[in-house]
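Q: Please design a sequence for this.
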């Protein structure tokens, strides 16, 4: 296997709005991130993925960009960004940014000129008067239709997400020229790559009606088409001289799709985020209850481990609920958080840690929709309301899965503001900040944080955990076991003690008071046999 720096990297995702507030306005910012670089460095990670900090009206928390060349004032200035890149570099940390180019904000200059019919921007977006026929029957990612009527242009425009996120028209070569300029601007600033937002839906082959589906009617006209592959090759050509890498958020891809997107000889993306393992608890049983199976969970990950030459490995991010609340144990919170960390850092691929994951942050204790900021959750809730679904049922359907679960402020300490802010936080702080916070875990050698540091150090010392081959050995209701090169990883994801008939040389265990010949509840270990 070819060695690459991004294969050996460990990525730490920062959601800037919720990480560290330097000025007391309740919103995290770039100076706040700079103030925490020593902490990030102490984890042993060497890449920061920065969620959007561009100028934006924040209808979708920065994933609706109004100016790709500016920093949102909430986050600071361009000088602050330059300082972040420089200070991170001093600590051996690279910065990658979010690249959101399927759509812009409706407040972007391109769209404002397009809606007025000003050239050359008239066809920068998909307008119903630019194509034969009338708006189609497509349905969007946030629910509902995908067309919004614009009174000024007297026409409708396409938006696969929210109405304020109009889709760019890549049939127009000028759109690509402008995107290429944006890429070079940030690469020249020292950015070492991009996480590419919903990158496999850029190209729409037509605006014909789609085949009716329970979700995303019309998706056959834009999911992972040849036109998108061509765009990705152009992106790769721009990034190659900078030794930068790309990771694509790719929706509804299977392994064969992922191979086409990531095989080195095709020169498109370096790796992709797949979502199949994130969907195993979405199978509905009985009355809107989600049943999770570790065996099914591991089976899906095993399929991708075997199927792709190189994976991303992640268990949570800004769009997913907290992994310990989702896959762990309430009774064994700390133990299960450590086990999940072991899984994250020992599978084949580049691991992505989301802020707070390293201290075991949990889903928020929201009690009503009034506390929610997430536009996707609000849209879905509104659709459920139109279907006359009872209030309690609606709440139970979305409270465990909405995106704000991961977006609550970072818990630095147990005091007011959780060390995140001296002001009023933009989103509520979890009530368990007193038990789960960095300050408390820094002083505990047996904490989740201490174990993450040990895990990352262990990974760097053992090349098998990066380039070693992978083999699944055991996958049942209670125990998962797999091999990476000469190392064996054993996970007891149950609340009971498990007897072991065979035990090798224990190199690292999540349980400080482990018992020879047994696996304690939620114990994770690495051994050599």
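A: Design:
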């Amino acid at each position: 296997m070819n060695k690459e720096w991004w294969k050996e990297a460990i990525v730490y995702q920062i959601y800037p709005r919720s990480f560290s507030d330097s000025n007391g306005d309740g919103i995290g910012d770039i100076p706040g991130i700079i103030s925490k670089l020593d902490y990030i460095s102490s984890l042993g990670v060497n890449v920061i993925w920065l969620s959007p900090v561009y100028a934006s009206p924040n209808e979708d928390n920065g994933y609706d960009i109004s100016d790709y060349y500016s920093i949102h004032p909430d986050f600071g200035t361009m000088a602050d960004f330059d300082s972040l890149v420089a200070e991170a570099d001093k600590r051996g940390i690279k910065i990658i940014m979010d690249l959101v180019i399927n759509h812009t904000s409706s407040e972007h200059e391109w769209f404002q000129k397009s809606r007025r019919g000003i050239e050359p921007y008239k066809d920068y977006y998909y307008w119903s008067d630019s194509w034969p026929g009338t708006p189609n029957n497509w349905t969007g990612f946030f629910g509902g239709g995908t067309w919004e009527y614009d009174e000024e242009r007297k026409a409708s425009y396409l938006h696969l997400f929210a109405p304020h996120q109009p889709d760019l028209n890549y049939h127009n070569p000028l759109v690509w020229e402008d995107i290429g300029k944006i890429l070079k601007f940030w690469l020249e600033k020292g950015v070492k790559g991009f996480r590419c937002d919903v990158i496999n839906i850029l190209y729409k082959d037509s605006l014909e009606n789609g085949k009716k589906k329970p979700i995303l009617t019309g998706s056959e006209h834009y999911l992972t088409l040849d036109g998108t592959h061509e765009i990705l090759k152009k992106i790769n050509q721009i990034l190659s001289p900078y030794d930068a890498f790309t990771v694509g958020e790719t929706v509804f891809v299977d392994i064969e799709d992922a191979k086409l997107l990531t095989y080195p000889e095709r020169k498109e993306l370096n790796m992709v985020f797949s979502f199949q393992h994130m969907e195993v608890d979405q199978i509905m049983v009985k009355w809107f209850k989600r049943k999770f199976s570790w065996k099914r969970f591991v089976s899906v990950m095993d399929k991708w481990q075997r199927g792709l030459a190189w994976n991303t490995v992640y268990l949570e991010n800004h769009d997913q609920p907290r992994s310990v609340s989702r896959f762990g144990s309430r009774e064994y919170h700390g133990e299960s958080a450590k086990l999940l960390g072991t899984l994250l850092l020992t599978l084949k691929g580049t691991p992505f840690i989301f802020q707070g994951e390293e201290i075991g942050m949990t889903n928020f204790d929201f009690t009503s929709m009034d506390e929610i900021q997430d536009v996707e959750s609000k849209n879905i809730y509104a659709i459920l309301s139109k279907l006359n679904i009872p209030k309690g049922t609606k709440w139970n359907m979305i409270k465990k899965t909405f995106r704000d679960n991961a977006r609550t402020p970072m818990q630095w300490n147990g005091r007011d503001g959780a060390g995140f802010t001296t002001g009023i936080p933009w989103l509520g702080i979890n009530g368990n900040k007193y038990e789960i916070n960095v300050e408390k875990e820094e002083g505990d050698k047996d904490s989740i944080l201490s174990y993450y540091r040990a895990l990352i150090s262990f990974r760097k010392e053992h090349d098998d955990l990066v380039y070693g081959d992978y083999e699944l050995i055991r996958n049942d209701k209670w125990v998962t076991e797999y091999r990476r090169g000469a190392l064996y990883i054993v996970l007891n994801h149950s609340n009971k003690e498990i007897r072991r008939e065979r035990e090798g040389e224990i190199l690292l265990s999540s349980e400080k008071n482990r018992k020879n010949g047994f696996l304690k509840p939620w114990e994770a270990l690495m051994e050599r046999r």
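Q: Thanks. Anything notable?
A: The CA atoms of residues 248 and 465 lie 23 Å apart. The first strand starts at residue 11 and ends at 14.
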